[in-house]
Amino acid sequence: MRVVIADDESLARYSLKSMLLESAVAVSVVGEAKNGDELLELVRRHRPDLAFVDIRMPRLGGIEAITKGSELSPGT
Fold it and tell me: What does the alpha-carbon distance between residue 72 and residue 37 come to, in Å, rounded to a whole number?
């Protein structure tokens, strides 16, 4: 399963990535984003199966990024 993580706090991204990689589920974290703009680029490039998205991020918030990202990759 291809996963992207979007959070403006590096510790939150690191923690979530660590938990995912230690889980029993076969996960590949294909990218990490610090804001909604970076998230959209990752979604466009990788078409992930799942995205973990912080709601409050700089530049483009999580809800807006999810809305725009669903147009780029409807299966995410």
Answer: 13
Q: Where are the beta strands (DSSP E) in the chain?
A: 2-6, 28-33, 50-53
Tens digit of each residue's pLDDT, the chain (76 residues): 999 999 999 999 999 999 999 999 999 999 999 999 999 999 999 999 999 999 999 889 999 999 999 999 999 9
Q: How far apart are CA 33 and CA 10, in angstroms?
A: 9
Length reported for the chain: 76
Nearest to 63 by CA among 55, 72, 71: 55
User: Taking a C-beta distance cutoff of 8 angstroms, is the pair 68, 41 a contact?
Assistant: no
* ∠ Cα 38 40 43 (to 5°): 110
